[in-house]
Amino acid sequence: MHKKRGFIAAGFLSTAAALTLMTAPNLFAKGDTNATVSKLEALTKFTRVIGTVEKYYVDDLTINEIINKAIKGLMANLDAHSSFLDAKSFKEMKIQTSGEFGGLGVTVGMRDGALTVIAPLEGTPAYKAGLKAGDIILKINDKSTLNMTLDEAVSLMRGKPKTKITLTIVRKNEPKPIVVTIVRDIIKIQSVYSKKIGKDILYLRIVSFDKKVVKGIRKALAENPSAKGVVIDLRNNPGGLLDQAVGTVDLFVDHGVIVSQKGRVKSENEVYKAHKKGTHKNIPIVVLVNGGSASASEIVSGSLQDHRRAVVVGEKTFGKGSVQIIMPIGKTEALRLTIARYYLPSGRTIQNVGVTPDIVVPFGKVTVEEDQFSIKEAELKKHLETELEKIDGENIDKTKAKKMAPKEENIISKKDLLNDNQLKEGVDILRALIITKETK
Asked: Where are the domains positioned within the chain?
């Protein structure tokens, strides 16, 4: 894959692993005289404001502090994902992208100015504590998140493993804020889980798009050659690496554009296309998404939808379709700057729009009406088993032991489906697609 000036990540998991040097553009390059004069006037106004703040502001601020505040204000007003990384933030970012650190395992973003949970990652402290996509984090310990930048919030939530942090959460349909105490831990995530639904459907749960996703999907497909259909579960997947999103789509699409990246600078524009080799182009697919599906997840679901390779089921996705890279402005400071946006094969954007499912299904349990005769029969059977136990306790104990044996972890049962109506709806649609394919 063609390398850009920075390492581009299609998500919130890591901003950049490779850093790029930026040469400041010449503000007074030869060109339109009026434009040059306009720039000079703007810079004069900026200098005047800095001088006024330095002289009259109630607190004594150094010129460096004033400039840093000005830069932070500028970046925060560009968009929710651009920011200024001062020495401390820049150092923490490099730790985040190059080594292990203590955290909660939750991906957050700014939505309408509020610090919002995009998704807790499975198996992490945040997931176990019950955080949900769409939760608004009102306070981190005793600090309000109002007017707090995304970087400041992330910095506060990170910390040494086994240390506690308290989050005050505002959740939809809850009458009052919820206080949650979480113990930080080293975040280690298995990105791809595979299970079977019946004998003919392969279920793939992609937790995040790290560097092992495409390899994990290939392995699961190879181990299940008899699968007649695939469910790809991207719910609460906050994104990750662009090349893994592109590679995932490439496994199921044999030609055409997967996603394109467009910005003001032509050198940053890129078109990623599918390849015929190694494509599973005939297997029916259902993709599950929700409000916690962001960035790389939206590229995968939206691209497969545009290519008519999958039926997308669930709820509208988050809507994060912009590209950020890290641009150092010295040895200890940097800018995280949005340089482009992603566009799906149809030309539609993801940013602030998201992907709308083909079949909209709110999450919940499936309502099943029990047959009255079956209930009476079950009660009678239970009574008879109790009576039998009095006579032949040993046999009954063995029967109970067999019933209590743990189910296979790689099998999704009928009960599991009844607890997840989005998954059940997806499976029902997939079975219809399989039948249609077989009758052609």
From this structure: 101-186
